[in-house]
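pasting for ref. prot 1 ->
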Amino acid sequence: MKTIIEPFRIKVVEPIRMTSREEREGILREASYNLFLIKAEDVLIDLLTDSGTGAMSSQQWAGIMRGDESYAGARSWFVLKDTVSRLMGFEHVLPTHQGRASERILFELVGGPDKVVPNNNHFDTTRANVEHSGAKAVDLVISEGRQPATIHPFKGNMDIEALEALIKDVGRERIPLVMVTVTNNSGGGQPVSLANLRAVRAVCDKHKLPLFLDACRFAENAYFIKMREPGQQGRDVRDIVRDMFDLADGATISAKKDGIVNIGGLLLLRDPELIRKADELLILTEGYLTYGGMAGRDLEAMAQGFEEVVHEDYLQYRLRSTEYLGDALRKIGMQIVEPPGGHAVYVDAKTLCPHIPQAQFPGQALVVGLYRFAGIRTVEIGSVMFGGGGTVPAMELVRLAIPRRVYTQSHIDYVIEAAAELYKERESLRGLEIVESPPTLRHFTARFKEV
């Protein structure tokens, strides 16, 4: 069939509130044109993030009721540990309240001044935790990954030659680990091939460096491998997932993405000395080893989510529904990051708004415009998120992240219609300037005014 239907039925609904354009003008002014500061009840379609915003299944809700809330050694912990060990092959599993907690523990232990951490692309919290430790975060994505219009099946791949050059330039002793983000969120939700992961592993082996995955969207990446990589088409997604993790010495995971839960994360490790230190830090800052920062019910829901996310009918629907939005935006005339990502579509705001200088944040202008026109909340991934301190990002993107199992096709059709109307009036979009911001992760709380 041409139509890819949702592989689920809707059992519970939540009302959403309609707002007028006049109301939204006032809401934007009150929030200083930062959509993170807008109340969720004032948003019609919320595409800000796919992190923790998905809808849980009936089996996950049943797990919530089964949750064992014992402080130590709860049955729910062993359910999660067994699931993760079967799927990902790691025996040492540390539960955290979300992915950035895993990042904080990891880089507190391996980071520090004079250290350098290469990645295909660091996402915002990963970069912030690397740099908070005093280390330097370096992005080494392939050149195609910095060009929105270029078609490449694995634009998230790491540039192997650039990795070798970095190691030669700074010295292996300054590099505590090499990290690869799957899928590559900052670069448009683009996947990384199994061949590229193996090539990165070979470089790490050559220089005796550990390889870590930022594996928030591991299942979506594995399905892209199945669809696009030669020799992988007939394989089970579970086997591809296992191949990915078998190449790694560790991983940070936000379960709020491919765990399909509202809270939770993991830190996976193999090195005994790092395990010992991470255990101590987890107990100090998150909780005991068998619950971390979560309740037993969260552990149960996460375990079930990891089982459901590798179902191939779900993954086919997930990636195709994102592609549906990307196809429509392309037909309108919007330049998107090609091809569409797994969890989101990224619009090239620099191309859409050539009248807005990069210093006036064309991505944020588009974010404001989509809310003003139609009550749709999105997020800028460009000079607001990654600029400052003299840094000028290569791309000015706006991410439309689709929550898992939340919106129907008619919701997405509304987004498409709104985007088409906005495209006609794109020259009316106005640049912004920052009037107040923190020194790090400024996109969360910065305040703007329109120029």
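and prot 2 ->
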Amino acid sequence: MPKETPGTLLSFRPAIKVIDATLRDGGLVNDFRFSDDFVRALFAANAAAGVDYMELGYKADRDLFDPAKFGAWKFCREQDLARVLGENKTAMKLACMADVGRCNFRRDICKKSDSILNMYRVATYINTIPAAIEMLEYCDKLGYETTVNVMAISKETEKEISLALEMLGKSPAKAIYIVDSYGALYPEEMRILAAKYLEAGDKYGKEIGIHAHNNQNLAFANTIECVAAGVNYLDATVNGMGRGAGNCALELLLGFLKNPKYKLLHILKFLEEGHMQKLRAEGAVWGYDLAYLLTGVFNRHPSSAIRYIKEGRGDITAFWQELLDQE
């Protein structure tokens, strides 16, 4: 597919697509226990704001995850999608994430003609890319758009990334995502990675996406760095809601983008109505914190920081020493 000139931070690029991942990444914070009213209100706000795709959650394997321990958006069963959202009569498309090894895709993913979903986003680590390609091909044959998220890319070598891009470039995925799972990357590093991904995208006719985490308060900065480089698929969440330190905030991203089709006002109204405050009042915790800063600095999975916060610890220097001792 032809590529547009990347431009500058002030330029307008019609090829950009915004994906709201609040229900999916944010669901990791509250076990996907979003009320029907919350989902409907977020859907309406996203559609009115001009968001291109709304990711509704995961297609998780019910044999691996007990449905009694999670909300509906962990599984995105077709009957729940239809019950809550009915028919999608908006211009916004709907997506779902299928995680390699955690999704019984042959059993649980139906034909596109029987679903209101438009796209499956396959999440994989580099060592499971062959399985990811199998899932991408399966979803493509069923009629869905597909993208692929290569997670924890900050832990991989340049050679491994190159091999991954060659393999995924030959897959049906329309977009390949840079995923800073640990919030460890800085804008200069992101710029270098974006150039590498975009080179592969030009070679194979793929779009490139960015999914950033906010451990070092750089999710928004890293996202717009990728925009300037030419990356077109941009993930964000309302109020940055997501696992651990969270993600690039949707309201920041819409405020930045120059495409007049994006209307920040509708996300501001959603926030003004108190939907996110209610989630926090119910116990959902996310956002920048010293513990997440340290896992970002040390390029580590945030699980230890999540545990630190849940335990109510305040000995941040001891936590720093624990991470240092693991080097």
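The CA atoms of residues 74 and 265 lie 29 Å apart.
The chain has a mean pLDDT of 95.
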